Backbone:
């Protein structure tokens, strides 16, 4: 059996953790033995029980960020001596930094980069984020085996001197699929437009609210924002339209995606957004800003994805009209089946498994 240890800061409810879980779900159980190690205590929105349901042993260093600076490495080494993994697969700046220091305690180290760090960290943390991004890229350059979560992201990172290639994120196409019974339960005006994800500056939702505040003066429909974030109250202040709703975070995003007609994102930067893949898998045309990760989805789904120039309200409105026209010709099932060809979690996991064996055999 090949022992794999997956590492991240915590198992909080977020896209990178869903992707880790998706990789693990489809591993060959006769070939791999899996455990997970986190660096910090779990939060209230932890996904740890989903890992335990798969029979995965979950460990934690239980260290805060400050004490981790001094105690994480020796404590990690103790766990590695106990677990004796063949492979350490990490994601996130803290876990990637630590794994770059323990080369003698496993046969293979792999890290997955899930964002374009300079853009993402800068948007989250301001100038300190620029320092974090530079540090993360430095750590990535120290590692021989680096994977990016999308092909477009890999191209951009290679241009920055990071030796990596892309394995696109994959989603659970059995969970995220059209459900016409749920679709009929929707009680507001159609068409239903949905924005799913954190309401933060990087997601760039002001343009969407402003457009729909004007759009609903002469058109029917509903816009749902599903997610929390520090921009939520600001976005709510931009409109008094009753058909622009803010639902907050939900535990069952598939339910709202299955009710919707079109998914929209005006994001400034992404790795490869789970929410968009999940929406298309539920049969929704996607109207997306012209950033590299969205263009990658467009390349695989040319007829179901509509790209607009970021922050351009007129272009966004035109692409929304085109997506509405598609709904008159295309069924949700057909859209869903097409994305399964490119972005299923099983295909993603199989690519990682081939990678594990390839790198182990070339040691």
Residues:
């Amino acid at each position: 059996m090949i022992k794999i240890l997956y590492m991240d800061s915590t198992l909080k409810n977020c896209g990178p953790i869903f992707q880790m879980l998706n990789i693990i779900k489809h591993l060959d159980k006769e070939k791999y033995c899996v455990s997970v190690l986190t660096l910090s205590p779990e939060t209230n929105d932890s996904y740890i029980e989903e890992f335990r349901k798969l029979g995965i042993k979950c460990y934690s260093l239980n260290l805060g960020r400050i004490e981790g600076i001094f105690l994480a490495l020796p404590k990690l080494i103790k766990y590695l001596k106990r677990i004796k993994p063949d492979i350490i697969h990490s994601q996130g700046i803290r876990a990637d930094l630590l794994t770059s220091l323990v080369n003698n305690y496993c046969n293979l180290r792999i890290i997955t980069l899930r964002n374009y760090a300079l853009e993402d960290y800068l948007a989250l943390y301001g100038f300190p984020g620029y320092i974090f991004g530079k540090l993360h890229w430095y750590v990535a350059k120290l590692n021989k085996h680096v994977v990016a979560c999308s092909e477009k992201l890999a191209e951009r990172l290679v241009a920055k001197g990071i030796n990596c290639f892309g394995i696109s994120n994959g989603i659970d196409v059995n969970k995220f699929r059209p459900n016409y019974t749920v679709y009929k339960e929707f009680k507001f005006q159609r068409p239903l437009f949905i924005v799913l994800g954190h309401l933060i500056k990087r997601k760039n939702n002001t343009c969407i609210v402003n457009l729909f505040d004007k759009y609903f003066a002469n058109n029917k429909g509903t816009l749902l924002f599903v997610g929390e974030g520090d921009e939520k109250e600001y976005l709510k202040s931009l409109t008094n339209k009753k058909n622009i709703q803010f639902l907050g975070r939900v535990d069952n995003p598939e339910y709202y995606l299955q009710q919707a007609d079109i998914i929209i994102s005006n994001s400034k930067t992404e790795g490869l957004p789970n929410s968009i893949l999940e929406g298309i898998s539920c049969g929704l045309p996607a109207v997306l800003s012209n950033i590299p990760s969205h263009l990658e989805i467009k390349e695989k789904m040319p007829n179901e994805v509509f790209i607009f120039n970021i922050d351009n309200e007129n272009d966004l409105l035109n692409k929304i009209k085109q997506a509405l026209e598609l709904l008159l010709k295309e069924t949700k099932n057909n859209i869903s089946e097409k994305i399964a060809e490119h972005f299923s979690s099983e295909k993603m996991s199989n690519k990682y498994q081939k990678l594990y064996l390839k790198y182990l055999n070339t040691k």
Q: What stands out?
A: Residues 201 and 231 are 7 Å apart (CA to CA).
